[in-house]
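PROTOCOL LOG
Step 1. Enter all chains and additional molecules of the complex.
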Amino acid sequence: MAETTIYVRDRFLAPEAPPVSDSSVIGWMRRNLFASWSDGALTILAAAALAYFLPAAINWLFVSAVWTGADRTACLTVEQGGQLPAGWSGACWAYVGDRFVQFMFGSYPRDELWRPLTVVVLFVALLVPLLIPKVPRKGLNALLLLVALPIVSYVLLLGGWFGLRHVETSLWGGLMVTLIISFVGIAVSLPVGILLALGRRSEMPIVKTACIVFIELIRGVPLITVLFMASVLLPLFLTPGNNIDKFLRALIGVSIFASAYMAEVIRGGLQAIPKGQYEAADALGLNYFHKMTFIILPQALKLVIPGIVNTFIGMFKDTSLVTIISMYDLLGIVKASFGDSGWITPVTPLTGLIFAGFVFWIFCFSMSRYSAFVERRLDKSQTR
Amino acid sequence: MALADTRTGSGDPPKVSLLYNPAVRRGVFQVLTLVVIVWVIWYAWHNAAQNLARANMTAGFGFLNSRAGFDIAQSLIAYTSDSTYMRALQVGLINTLVVAAAGIVTATIVGLLIGTGRLSHNWLIARLCTVYVEIFRNIPPLLVIFFWYLGVLALLPSIRSIFQHLEEDPDAVFFISNRGIYMPAPVFGEGFGLVVAAFALGVVAAIAFTLWANARQRATGKRPPVARINLALILLPPLAVFLASGRPLSFDYPVPGSFNMRGGMVVGPEFLALYLALSLYTASFIAEIVRAGIRGVPGGQTEASYALGLRPRQATRLVVLPQALRIIIPPLTSQYLNLIKNSSLAVAVGYADLVAVGGTILNQSGRSVEIIAIWMLIYVSISLVTSLFMNWFNAKMALVER
Amino acid sequence: MAKKIVTALVGAAVLGLGATAANADTLSDVKAKGFVQCGVNGSNLAGFGAQDSAGNWAGLDVDLCKAVAAAVFGDATKVKFTPLSAKDRFPALQSGEIDLLARNTTWSISRDSQLGFDFRAVNYYDGQGFMVKKELGVKSALELSGASVCVQSGTTTELNLADYFRSNNMDFKPVVFEAQDEADAAYNAGRCDAYTTDASGLYSIRLKMANPDDHMVLPEIISKEPLGPAVRQNDSRWLDIVSWAHYATVAAEEFGITQANVEEMKGSANPDIKRFLGEEADSTIGADLGLPKDWAVQIIKAVGNYGEIFERNVGQGSPLKIDRGLNGLWTKGGLQYAPPVR
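Step 2. Run joint prediction.
Step 3. Record the structure below.
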């Protein structure tokens, strides 16, 4: 610093723009698409594939698609007996539009549709506050959703009381059935799963063995066999003449299956609670019931919320298997409609499956996003 | 639980009413559980016996030896409608294992590609892989099966148009139709056993060479070119034997029959739909597992291996991958198990797997209890064997602390 | 605690969702609950058991269920339908979920004896046949060697198919499906060359095809398939009622009684007709069956005589256009025959 300089720059040069190869679109592309020869080749290959398939898919789904029509002639080419030009292929959304109510509610009497709709409104009204972390009174909310709502919906949907017409479960169908089965599955599997998980970690050998055998047996076999068991064997295991509704049998099968998986998720949470928490609860003189309900479970359940949501996503997808024991959930009813002579066309199955896939996807995707959101929140609160 | 122990330090245990004695409570609770379980089993057993008696049926597995009477479309072992139910179940079990094995291999490869693709620096590839994962993870596998079966494979050219195509191009040997993929079937001539033997020898030699190379590397620090020599060891001897023994391999080409192609090999659309759906569905989960595994290895490990002078490929193979595998294997095991269990969806498209064949037997003979018991037993055994194998593999890969 | 609640909930649900106790006396049960629970075909088999888009049931089997309801309650609407697949039809009857199974079910000795059911009346004499696309140029089932055949699994059809091809030294490739609509779709998509099931079913499935005229049913009938209602074993009163609900319609056709003229036929001079319609003063036929005196009148008013039922559902009055054939009256070369009403 002692040295004096002859020239002191008092005006700084304006900063140079970063090299073009670094900042512009070209630079971005160079870094992210063409970093090396093999990278470039891959990019070009992928881009070519996209350029080939994407326009074709958009064309099939939207541009060439038929949006209105009363029956299958709307979606047939001239040589197949319709009016569309030869060689035409595209989605037949008119068919989905025609069948939409059926896809949602099955054969539920059309003049009674306000009943499932009310249930939907109640469900959304109770679910949304439960999902938003800031809204208070989670306990009451959960109680309403998991206990009160099932009772109300049971009365509303099935009827037979308060002057409501009785609607047999064989008339239920579509998305409604998918949602009911997965909701009942989660509502039953949570408490049963907690009991099983506690049982598996218990020090009592008989309880422990029983829980392990049940959990591992159910987790070791496919859902289909459990559903078959519920639908074929259950009537056999009851006193002669007693008989359970087919819908209820499917519910029992799905619940048994979900409970075993839920138990393992919750066990993971229980294992993650430090031993000190157990010991502290013991030191306070709490009995087992108090220790679990006030100290361990609240922490453990919070930890495994993402796991629970993932189990629920799995179950939501798995409900589609009830199709195989001839019940009509969303996928089942869409598939059954392929055989309807009013809409038999070569493009009907693909259109229907894309529609059903889209509905399933919307539900599962939003659930997985929610689970990721909770996971991030939990991470934050733990790294505080 | 530990409560009583802490108080025992000062002499006699305090008097606790029998009602609050943990040991007594535990005993009572266990006895209660046992009673409930026994009662449930007895109740089910008793009713089942009564119901069966009412329907004039007896329980037991003797029926497995009676004539099946129905045909099975896909069978890898000899089977006719005169075979027994037992044989039919064997056919089903083999079909289950085949589709599960093929699915596991494909799902692992695709999952590995997609999972590493999502971590790629290439923006386009990473996005495409993400889209793939997000689509397939959130759609029921059954729907994917139907998508392939009804939406794609059913729209392939009909067998008639294949016949026409054959008239124009009589030399064609490979056909894709809505009845499946037809291709030439290899016919192994006499002496092909020698080729197989040479191949087996080659594999043994390759393993021996690898062990020797490892030892040598430890001793001298130099590693012989293992990959190239192994490839030669495995491929060259069988090739030499094959040529020397006069090429004991011919092909049976599919030719038009009255309704279907005759001869050759055919992979049916039922198998294809199930196989493709299972592989692609499970691959999306495996991709996520692989991604989490690779990301779970701290970046410092890669940097450290570079600092040691390893090349990028060596760093991946020797440093990153072994550590990533430790994170990957446990969840991968459960995905494999899921795939095996999901193969039971075969029943939806009429692929004759264990559940489909069992279901037919259940219908024909009315033996629901026995069939469901067989199903459960077999699936639980498959799951156990797979878990045992993967646990063994996991233990082998686990961190060995020296 | 939680366990208790769960148990209580499940228990309540079991009771609410329809736990019914099936005694050996189905008639009393049916009267007590006020309707007949009837198991019908769940895969929309036009002509036998099918639901229109408004949810109304129609078909030969459905009319039999209505006839039973009319006989018991004098009201053909007091019947509820349970759609069933081939797989769950028998457990449904065994467990008491349904009171009677009218689901185009073949009467066979094993089902009669082994499964614990009773059959007696046959409301449709059927046989297994084959349907092919006309463009194949096949005129006989004996030309089908090497063909792929679509069939529903777990049916007598599947067994007959294997036996038929074996005994004629032909080979075939079975393409087996769990549900009938899956088999329909596969056949329609060209997955198989031929479709086999009961001939009546073939006519009904043909209608579901995009172009029914492109398909033909081959002349060979390879099996006997007497289709009729089944009830649980050891309940002869209920079996009587179900059987006579069918026989009454056949007898009505023999007597020339139709839905339109049943009221005026009451005044007929023919003592047989008067006895049949409950117009004879000291007639105890209805009471002996456990039914009202005018049970036959109610049946015919509700569904008509057998000829009318047949023509309306599967015959010329329907899209199926099946000939009476085996199902004609015995006096006209058919097999439909009612025991004397005496």
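Step 4. Note key features.
Chain C touches chain B through 40 residues (CB under 8 Å).
The mean pLDDT of chain C is 84.
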